[in-house]
Specification:
By secondary structure, this protein is of the alpha/beta class. 29% of the residues lie in helices and 24% in strands. It is globular and about 50 Å long. The protein binds 5-O-phosphono-beta-D-ribofuranosylamine (GRF). The site of 5-O-phosphono-beta-D-ribofuranosylamine has 14 residues, from helix 1, strand 7 and helix 6.
């Protein structure tokens, strides 16, 4: 499925990553900023990708600030990390559904991220599918990391899917989020060889090591406005 988010961002701040699908080329990053680039992070789990990004921000490798961390899981590790580092962090209840946000919850997520004036939303292990209103509110400004070389093995437990299929190479993908499942334009990928003795756990561990390198690099390029999008192709002005 292609992007559902076919509305240009309403009132997007200068320097935000914007998308205009009425007038392809679609996703595009506007230049000229005089405010810091603000990142909102959504996660449901242990938060190792968030830590990698926060470390890269702290080291000056990503010219941005972490404006807000939100989780749909009250005791998620990602919230503990965020609080330990004094980032604004919030548990927002997701509502009654298992795989998506209930309408009222979706409104609360949108409001929290808009109040935090985020330029980019980084999904770091957020286990819910984002839909219509959320995608429209932040069109072209949401990215995700997936533990497979997309378009192979979208969905859950991708490392297990790769092992079951018998691929020799697995990996991870950073992509823009659109209305489909793991289907938006690909920003970056990193390959991880599959070993004969790999178990799902060992393969996932090595994929995560690759994720922790790839995701900060992609977020840095977005924050520096070094990325543009033409159709489905994401063009880097500088190579990684
Ligand atoms: C990562 O493997 C990522 O690819 C997937 O969810 C996992 C999140 O891990 N989307 P963590 O919470 O960042 O450690």
């Amino acid at each position: 499925m292609q992007c559902q988010c076919d509305v240009p961002i309403d009132g997007a701040r200068e320097g935000a990553v914007t998308m205009d699908l009425n007038n392809r080329p679609g996703f595009a990053i506007q230049g000229g900023v005089n405010h810091s680039f603000r990142i909102g992070v959504l996660g449901s789990g242990k938060g190792s990708n968030f830590v990698a990004i926060a470390d890269a921000v702290a080291a000056g490798k990503i010219p941005a600030e972490i404006a807000l961390v939100v989780s749909d899981v009250a005791d998620a590790g990602i919230l503990a990390f965020a609080r330990a580092r004094n980032f604004p962090a919030q548990f927002l209840p997701p509502g009654k559904f298992r795989t998506k946000l209930e309408a009222e919850a979706e409104r609360a997520y949108i409001a929290a991220l808009q109040d935090a004036q985020v330029d980019l939303i980084v999904l770091a292990g957020f286990m819910r599918i984002l839909k219509g209103d959320f995608l429209r509110a932040f069109a072209g400004r949401i990215v995700n990391i997936h533990p497979a070389l997309l378009p192979a093995f979208p969905g859950l437990h991708s490392w297990q899917q790769a092992l079951d299929y018998g691929t020799k190479v697995a990996g991870c993908t950073v992509h823009f989020v659109d209305g489909g499942v793991d289907s938006g334009p690909i920003i970056g990928q990193s390959a991880v060889p599959v070993r004969n003795d790999d178990t799902p756990e060992t393969l996932h561990q090595r994929i995560q090591v690759a994720e922790h390198e790839l995701y900060p690099q992609c977020v840095a390029a977005l924050a520096r406005k070094e990325i543009s999008v033409v159709g489905r192709r994401v063009i880097w002005q500088k190579s990684i």
